[in-house]
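Continuing the batch. This is chain 6 of the set; chains 1 through 5 are on the previous pages. Same settings as before, nothing changed between runs. Recording input and output for traceability.
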Amino acid sequence: MLLRCPECSPKLAQDYVRNAFRRVAETRRWSWLVKFGQFVAPNAYNTGTVTTVQNSPIITGSGTVWTSALAGLQFRVGLTAPIYTIVSVESNTSLTLDSNFGGVNATGASYQIYQCYFITPKDFHQFITVWDPAFNWQLYLDIEQREINLWDAQRASAGNAYLVSFHDYSAEYGGTVENAVNDGIGADPVATGTYTGPADATFIIQCILGGGSGTATFQWKKNEGSFRGPLVTSTTPITMQDGVQVYWPSDVSYTAGDIWSVCVQALVSGGLPRYEFWPHQQANHVYPFLYEIRHDDLSDPNATLPRYIRGDVLLEFALAELALWPGPSADKPNPYHDLNLWKAHTAKAESMLAILERQDDEVWQQDLGYAYPGMAWAMASPLGDARWLQSHAI
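Output for chain 6:
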């Protein structure tokens, strides 16, 4: 491009090439955009009982052994309250939901923790097929949430899933961690990491045994929780909770009894598409799937050009865009600016693109259609019968 138009800056030329690749990548569902993945549903967890407080996201357990592995799974009590997602697990008997609990206050209530909402891979664009090898059927992909709400607003149906429905976008937490503030006289540790909690908080760190890094010990807690530890200090960051870490520089001495406060601020942003599998699977189960990826831009780290995309095709599309560029200013016009050149490059690029599409069809034939016989039953349709669908592959 620079050889044809030296007036075009390298950065602008790179933008045009990136635009050309994105245009080609989004032309169709190319075979090189197809990727395999799998969702693995864990066994449901319901050991012990819980205490819930309306309008509070904190759930307190009794006889529970909750671990951080439960973060991201769904939590529910009965059938009359919504289903929530666990954001973090503070201890064996305490966890935090993504929203305030809307049900009634309860003590000693039974509960369930399982997964019915699944987050897609980071490069996800669209499902092609989701199937269940254990029951030899393919799951439906064209059912909306309002249809499920019509059939099963309480989500009382459980067992083998037969449909996948878009639910929402997951929340991503990536807040900030401030410096440790000391109320004592000794040296200070360094707080670091990316806070992944849903709300602002304060971590308290207390030195138990004084001395240098590797000798001194400390304990910590989040907000009004109980202290955890003691832990041995280290020059390597030690993760406390929700992505917050602390490390203890060498060549200084830490004083027993010193207390530090670490303020963290939450930052919540939209994440990836999240899909509901219905009926809800509460036993360990795997759902493999094929999906179309959203390919990286050429400017992304470690991005590579797919083997089936020729560089000359991108060049023609980029030169077509270059031919529309008038130049950096009126007194420095682009000598390559010409509508006839734009038409010529566009026509050539589209002709070459048609060849790539034909070659891709030879790898993966997509222009096929099937008509299922017997769909106009002379009797009531079984599509609303979960038991029938869970035992038939159609």
